[in-house]
Each structure stands twice: as structure tokens, then as C-alpha cells.
Amino acid sequence: MKSLNLLRINSNLYMIFLISLINVLPLINAQTSTPLSITPPAITTTTTSSSTSTTTTPTPTSYPTDSIYQNLFNMRLIYLYNLLNNNPDTELENLRTLYNGRLNLTLFAPPDNLSSYNVTQLDNILRYNTVNGSLASNTLSGKQFHRTILTSSDLVQLPKGESQYIMTNKTDNIIYLNTGNKIEAKVITADIVCSNGMLYIIDNVILPPGDFNFVMNNHNFTSSYNAFNITNLIPTIESTVGITILVANNAAFESGPNFFDYNSSYQLSVSSLHIITQVIHSTEFKTLNNYETLNGGTVEVLISSINGEITIGGAKIISSDILIKNGVIHVIDQIITSNVTTTTNTPTSKATVSSATPTPEVTFSNDTSGSSLDKKSKIGIGLGVGCFGIVVLLFSILLIKWYRAKRSKNKPTAAVAMEA
């Protein structure tokens, strides 16, 4: 019996030892390991009206003597701070060094919903949201374009290896950030002064501009895309370093003669007029300037002095500055056909728009005197033949009348002779 009790006592002591060991081990690990994240301290306050305690977060305070990287923590952007602080990947480590260095930068810090992106994507997003130089909000007005530090060849295809643009648009003293691709971010905290630049906090993630195919599909520019596709211009558009595309909206294709009923030569010439071989944002257009297009022609720009409306090649820009990997897209309200002359030809398509659509032959010369002379010659010959016919007819009538008159004179003489 005593042995049984002794066994029970030993078992209880063993269990107490195990429980104590389990409780102590986490404390030992906490003291000996490096924390993986930093959580901002919370302040516990006790109200006088009740005995309950409430936990509040202190107001974030930035420090001008701290770097952009340090102020991420000061402004409670903890997810972004920890992402840069604890990630062993070279890309993000380089960014941490950059945000903690001496180079003047402006970071538009996105919110904490970045967990769905991999390391490479995060690096590209942050680099695209980082602008060279220190931008104060009072220097921003209207629509402006800024060079970012994003230069990845997978995402940027601009002349001289230049970095990608990002656009700010200040309206009613509110700053918006976007690429023209349907997603924009609003600045919710501005002008956080740092020792190496400026920090802004925005309310959305702004992704780098996509390529031509992605943007055209995203905006549902199906008619223009089909026009570029049937003329085999898409490979040229995608491979050109620095380009401006004038995209006629779907309504422009529906309102006029059916572009797709014309012959391939005309389609190519007209489509090429919609491609300018340099990057021109809407703020860079100058009135009365002519810009060279892919086919060697030019399109003239007119800017209204009343409302700033931009007309190019006779078409009005109705939506501007949709950024793409290698340039920019402006949306226009009609198809540009300047410098492209047509003559009626046998249609190459059975489809018609209104009774019959001519199939044009394309020339780039304004001299049409040759065709005009041919037409005049034909008209002259026709008139000559007509006049000659009238003269012959009148002569025949007179001849008949003369013959009848002569015959009527001879009839009485014959009668007298018979009576004799």
C-alpha cells in the first residue's frame, strides 16, 4: 500500500515538473531569439467615469531628422517597415538601403494590403511608387509626370534606358496618383519631411503600367485593336522604344464608313497615322506643332485657348495619358485620315455600310492634276461628239427640206406638157 502511494506522489511530481518546463520554455526562447516584427506600443488609459481600461494608439509622429525608412515606423506603416526590415531577399534589402541613405527621394507609401504579391512584384511596386527628388505638395498642380526609380526591362521600354513615369493630378487641393489605367490612389497624408526626401501615404496600391495588349484589353478598345491587328502593326507597337498611340474609341468606328471594308493598303496607311514615334504626354503637346507618324506623315495639334481642348489630326482627345510600358495612349473621338487620299476602286469586301463602300487606293501626294485632266478630256470629247452630231442632224434636215422644195416646183411643168 505504501509503495502504491509513493508511486502516485512521484507521478504527480513528474507532471508538475513537465507543466513548469512547458511554461518556462517560451520565456527562454523569447529572451534568446531575435523578434521577427515590431509592433507599435499601445498606451493604456483608465477613464474616471468607469473602472474599465481602454487601449488607444498614439498619434503617429514623424521626425525630419529620420530617414524615409525610419519614418515608415514612426508613421505606423509597420507592415511595410517589417517587410523591408526582415526580408533577406536582395531586392528588398537594396530598397531598405536606398530609403535609409542620403539620396533625395519621394516615396508614395501604399497601404498594408501587399501580402498577395511576391518579392519581385513588391520590389517593382515600391520602385514605381518612388520618385526621384523631394516633392513638396505645394509644388504640385494639375497633371504632372514624374520619373520613378523603376527601370526593370520587363516593365519599362523607354528611350535611353530611362525610368518609368508616374502621374500626379492635383484637383481641389487633393492629390491623386495614377497611370490612367482605371486604378488611382488618393494621398491621405502628405509632406512627411525626412532627412533624405519626402514621404506620402496613399490609400491604394498603384501598379506599374502594363504593355499595349494588356491596356487595350483592359479598356475594351476592341475596334482600334482589331485595326492594328489586321495591319500587323501590333509587333511594331510593342517593340518600339518610346511611342504615342492615338486610339480611336469604338464609337468612332461605328459612326463613319466601315474601316474594315477598305483595302489593306488604305487600312495600313490610316492605322499608321495613329502612331507617333515619340512619347508625348498631354501636357507636352504644343499648338500648331506637327508630329511625325509611323508612315512618315504628320499630324497637326491644335489646343483651344478657351478650354484647353486638344485636337490632333482633326480628332479631339477625349481621354488622355493612359501610360503603357513603352509610352502613352490618348483616346480620340474619330479616325484620323489626313494625308491619305482615296480613289474609287472595286471593293475588296462584300460588306457595305450604306449602299456601297468604295475601296480606296492610297497615295500620299496632294497633286491630283493627272486624274483631273483625264476627266476633263473625257468631258471635252463627249461634248465634241455631241456637237458634231447636232450639226449633222441640222444639215440633214435642211437637205431634206431643199429636196422637197425642188420636187414640188417640177410637178406643174410636167402637167402642162401632157396637155399639149
UniProtKB/TrEMBL annotation:
Keyword Transport set for record: no
Q: Where are the transmembrane segments?
A: 12-30, 379-400
Q: Where is the FAS1 domain?
A: 64-206, 208-336
InterPro entries noted in UniProt = Adhesion/Biosynth-related, FAS1_dom_sf, FAS1_domain
Q: Residue spans with biased composition (Polar residues)?
A: 355-372
What's a GO cellular component annotated to this UniProt protein?
extracellular space
PROSITE patterns from the UniProt entry: FAS1
Keyword Flavoprotein appears in the UniProt entry: no
- Organism, scientific name: Diversispora epigaea
Annotated region (Disordered), positions in chain: 39-62, 346-373
Name the Pfam families on file: Fasciclin
Q: Which keywords accompany this UniProt record?
A: Membrane, Transmembrane, Transmembrane helix
Q: What is this protein called?
A: FAS1 domain-containing protein
